[in-house]
């Protein structure tokens, strides 16, 4: 643990057991700003300035959340996401100066769970971290006795946290699975963009709606492989989405 990590961890020492966050950022000033803000709000913080250090830190300490800059000096952040996703489902929030939609789509498709563009406000960053913390707590509190949901070729085992299509297990990202569960538990209802983004990210910024469209598109590719079959999820343009009962 380097000096910044020790300082951050010390600042948040009174909140043992809270979210552990790995901050991956090569800009020392930005890294210090993020680490200090998180520590002041009771989070345990580790930092890394390179992709290789980030992978080692993640493997050694198993953080609950990763904040990842894409423009790292040794390897691109996309490569770090791919490496982490080869063995971990830890939530990853990208923090990047890359504002092109293609960059965001690539990061989300590779396995990132959220994308925050620079410059950003500390308040927005903390709100997104709190949203992930709430989801982690909700996940631990899920009722293991809930039944299995079935709709046509789709089967979702809430207790096991798994989804199947025609008996084949689907490989979903944490966000895709959360979206699917929301749709399944509200089958037949139109869920608005605002409702979905609030449930997924805890906020309703325009950037979240753009991310929602990306994740919904990737989810559909996985659960609606056969074009001859009736669509499971309907789009209500300008409003939201609805899962129909087959």
UniProtKB/TrEMBL annotation:
Oxidoreductase is among the record's keywords: no
**GO annotation (BP), single:** positive regulation of DNA-templated transcription
Q: Where in the cell is it found?
A: Cytoplasm
Q: Name one Pfam family in it.
A: Trans_reg_C
Location of the Response regulatory domain: 20-133
Residues annotated with 4-aspartylphosphate modification: 69
Entry GO terms, CC: cytosol; protein-DNA complex
Q: What is its main location?
A: cytoplasm
User: What residues does the OmpR/PhoB-type domain cover?
Assistant: 146-245
For this protein, the DNA-binding region equals 146-245
Going by the entry's taxonomy, the superkingdom of the source organism is recorded as Bacteria
Q: Name one GO molecular function term.
A: cis-regulatory region sequence-specific DNA binding
Which InterPro entries does the UniProt record give? CheY-like_superfamily, OmpR/PhoB-type_DNA-bd, Sig_transdc_resp-reg_receiver, WalR-like, WH-like_DNA-bd_sf
Taxonomic lineage is: Bacteria, Bacillati, Actinomycetota, Coriobacteriia, Coriobacteriales
Protein name as catalogued: DNA-binding response regulator
- As recorded in UniProt, coiled-coil segments are none
Recite the UniProt keywords alphabetically: Cytoplasm, DNA-binding, Phosphoprotein, Transcription, Transcription regulation, Two-component regulatory system
